[in-house]
Design goal:
By secondary structure, this protein is mostly helical. It is 61% helix and 6% strand. It has two domains: 101 residues, no CATH class; 39 residues. The protein has a two-stranded antiparallel sheet with strand order 1-2. A hairpin with a 5-residue loop joins β1 and β2.
C-alpha cells in the first residue's frame, strides 16, 4: 500500500487489489475461508494431483535409469523414453505453474512456435558440429 498526494492535497490510496484474482491456478489464496472450505479442499486436491503426476513420472525416470540396462532395454529406447517423459513433465509444469493451460490458443502458439524453433536451432547446430568434427578427424594428413 502506498500513498500519493494529488493537486487537491487529498491523500489517494493506491491499492493493487487482490493479487490472487490474477491467478486462476494453484497459488490463489482463499481469504477468510477455513481450510475445511470447499475452495481450499479443491486447491489442495489440485496440488495433490500435480504432485502425484510429477512424482510418478519422476519415479519411472529414476527406475528406468537404474534398472533399464539390467532389464535389457536398448540405449536408444531408454534415451527416447527419457526425452518423452522429460518433455511431458516440462509441458505439465508449464501448463500448471505458468498458467499456460488457462490461456487462449493464440497465446499458446505464440509461446510454442519460438520454443520449437529454438529446439530445432540447437539440434541443427549439434548436427553441424558433429559433421565438422567427423570431417576434421577423417581428413587428417599424417
Amino acid at each position: 500500500m502506498s500513498s500519493n498526494t494529488n493537486s487537491g492535497n487529498e491523500v489517494q490510496v493506491l491499492y493493487e487489489g487482490d493479487q490472487s484474482k490474477l491467478y486462476s491456478g494453484l497459488m490463489s489464496h482463499h481469504h477468510g475461508e477455513s481450510i475445511e472450505s470447499e475452495g481450499s479442499k479443491k486447491q489442495v486436491g489440485r496440488l495433490m494431483k500435480v504432485t502425484l503426476i510429477l512424482s510418478v513420472v519422476t519415479v519411472l525416470e529414476v527406475g528406468l535409469g537404474l534398472k533399464g540396462s539390467a532389464w535389457g532395454v536398448p540405449h536408444a529406447i531408454t534415451a527416447t523414453l527419457f526425452l518423452i517423459m522429460t518433455l511431458l513433465k516440462a509441458a505439465y509444469i508449464v501448463r500448471v505453474f505458468m498458467h499456460l493451460g488457462d490461456e487462449i490458443r493464440n497465446m499458446i502458439i505464440t509461446v510454442l512456435i519460438p520454443l520449437t524453433l529454438f529446439i530445432w536451432f540447437i539440434i541443427a547446430f549439434l548436427a553441424d558440429g558433429e559433421f565438422w568434427q567427423h570431417m576434421n578427424n577423417t581428413n587428417i594428413v599424417r
